[in-house]
Design a protein that fits this description.
This is DUF3027 domain-containing protein. It contains seven helices and ten strands. By secondary structure, the chain is α+β, with helices and mostly antiparallel strands. Strands 1-2-3-4-5 form a five-stranded mixed sheet, with helices on one face.
Length: 258
Amino acid sequence: MMTIVRAKPDTAAVAAVDAARAALLEEVDAADVGAHLGHVVEGERLVTHLFACERAGYVGWRWSVTIARAPRQKTVTVDEVVLIPGDEAIVAPEWVPYRERIKPGDLSPGDLLPVEEDDPRLVPTYSFGDDPLDPDEQAQVRRVAQDLGLGRVRTLSLEGRELAAQRWYDGDGGPQAPLAQSAPDSCTTCGFLMRIAGPLSEMFGVCANGDANDDGRVVSLDHGCGAHSEVRLAKKHEPVPLPEPVVDTITLDDLEQF
């Protein structure tokens, strides 16, 4: 039996279990209603009675019947009858907006993924003062960027760079990847590492080894793999040399003599 007290309990409302069950049976079949599980004092002269739900597919759910008593009244009235999930109820997972569910690799040819105007990862390439919020000012920024030959209307903000750097560093191109953990040396000493420009150049480069798993991908300087330019096989791993060639001088006549 469960009793949750949030305010001073009203005796008449707490005792109105039969009235709550009767109101519930007017809405649902008797076979769907189980035992009385207790009550919750919602407020002054306001009590919610809970009943077990026996309906198939609703394990752990509860029927909730809210009872109220008006001031200076002896009888109670039913406010609402609803079905609510309990602690053990099976409920749908929390809704995640479609935009937040998209992961790298989900886009197919022809798919479009617009970026919000106020995306914190981007800032105007050229602006005066604070970022313009007025559409006319945004259009002016675009015209100025085009006139100056900057090409891009927006570029990465500091937050955008930090998010990208953290994502790359924690991913398959970072130092914690299994490939890097067993590598003989790091990318910073590899001849196939292509340096990049900009603020992230001190942490990342691009792999240009066509035989490596990371070819064409961003890798951290402390990443690594077995295709390092300076890697050498140990003698025990080197291929066994072939024997000296033997010239076969036996002719058919020689074979007939045998």
